[in-house]
Amino acid sequence: MIVEDTEIEVIETSNSRLSQVDFDSIPFGRVFSDHMFQMDYENGEWTNISICPYGPIPMAPSASVLHYGQAIFEGMKAYKTEDGKVGLFRPRENAKRLNESAVRMCMPEIPVDLFIEGLSKLIQMDHNWIPQKRGSSLYIRPFMFATDTYIGVKASQTYKFLIFTGPVGSYYNNPLKLKVERKYSRAAKGGFGQAKAAGNYAGSLYPAKLAKEEGFDQLLWTDSVEHEYVEESGTMNIGFFIDDEFYTPPTEGSILKGITRNSVIQLLKEWGVKVNEAPISIRFLRECFENLRVKEAFGIGTAATIAPVESISIDGTNFNIPMRENPYSLKLKNALEDIRTGRQEDVFNWMTWIQ
Hints:
Blueprint: E1 9-10, E2 35-42, E3 45-53, H1 64-68, E4 71-73, E5 76-80, E6 86-89, H2 91-104, H3 112-125, E7 137-146, E8 159-168, E9 176-180, H4 198-202, H5 205-213, E10 218-220, E11 237-242, E12 245-248, H6 259-270, E13 275-277, H7 282-290, E14 294-301, E15 305-314, E16 317-320, H8 328-340, E17 351-353
């Protein structure tokens, strides 16, 4: 339920950049819409709530986030149907996960209704930025960071929350080549791998850089203790079709609780596919490759949606995954796209239509 009496100050841009956008060629994460939503957390409450033109935000050199890393974010998308309806995909799940990240990072939670109201008004203002080309969408980035001007290791008492958006096409344009990572760790149980915190991604950049220098697109992360059990792949959860069953690691402790992943699991169960949420060892994965049991592998995430994997390198041995006819990765991608754009009945009530 949207809170109707929240006072959101609205300052519209006087110079829209919409006419400068080539919607047939949109680089992912480089183009941003006209407005952003923002508010501050001070004295135990959210205040200064507004929608204003997208632009720089002032920050003190002593801002706590710059020194101690209290920063979290979410990734979401908005879609438009052929007849112009605007919808958000599972926004309350994103709000819930944002608050779970906030708790883990010792940050304040955001009332879900306030989150939905501010987001909805922002998208309504910039709805013309939503591409209608199949495979495109309006990417939404909510984020929060600590703003105390204080040098000392403790949780900040003040925070800033913002949402900005931008039209995007595909995150990955080609099937991926992955390398199993046996040395570096993305996260550890007891840490904050399950939170969508900025530091998780900062720590992954160097190993990913090394992998790209070797010709790979992304890493297939393993656990931090034995480096033997599959976790995530870069910006995505990971799933495999082994024989005719779907396998994906459980989201426990160090793996992000993917909303797209959860949606994929629900769709597959609806289609009668057996789903195994269980630890996947690299030894098991290698044996399955050697016995030609791996039929598909794909990344699953908001940005990537469904990203097919063409090969996985295990300890120097490269295992190719031939594309099979009518793969589940394509069926899942099409089903999600059709639900989000109103072409298929939303039996799960995933969409929130705001215009």
